[in-house]
Amino acid sequence: MHKPKHFPGSPYMRKPSPEGFGIQFMVLEDKSILAKFAFDEHKEGPPGHVHGGAVAAVLDEAMGTAAFENERPGFTATMTVNYRASVPLNTAIEVRARIDRIQGNKTFASAEMTLPDGTIAADSTGMFIVSEKLREYIQQLYGKLNGDE
Predict the structure, then answer these.
(1) Which residues, in sequence order, are CB contacts of 77 under 8 Å at separation 6+?
(2) Is the CB of residue 38 less than 8 Å from the CB of residue 31?
(3) Residues 68 and 33 sit within 8 Å (Cβ to Cβ)
């Protein structure tokens, strides 16, 4: 059902905390994205809870990964985040992202972050502009990560 993602992830997401998030996104059969992880104290905002910027960064990366896995790698042009509930530190959360529609060189995606009780802590929508330069960069980076030159 799950397979390792093709996109290696940005260094910011894949590096372990405190420098990054240590997140591994999985690609589902329908090319949507799933990640299960917990934020640690290095991403703290309000006492005992995750900073909103960290939430937004993860949602952005999830949508961008969905775009890449759907052969639409691109840069974030616009993004809206709706914060619905605070995310406690060291709590298992789930992030899902998908492509909603494609219009020319624009890819529209959405994502949500869910708490263990099913509460949606945040959801987002974004528009990504396809970039061949980004595709080439990711392919070079991915090859290097797998020993290809």
Answers:
(1) 106, 126, 127, 128, 129
(2) no
(3) no
Full-model pTM: 0.88
Per-residue pLDDT tens for 10-69?
A: 777 888 888 888 898 999 999 999 999 999 999 999 999 999 999 999 999 999 999 988
Whether residue 109 contacts residue 95, with contact meaning beta carbons closer than 8 Å, is answered with no
Q: What are phi and psi of 120, to 5 degrees?
A: -80, 115
Domains of the chain: 2-145 (3.10.129.10)
Cα(12)–Cα(139) distance, integer angstroms = 17
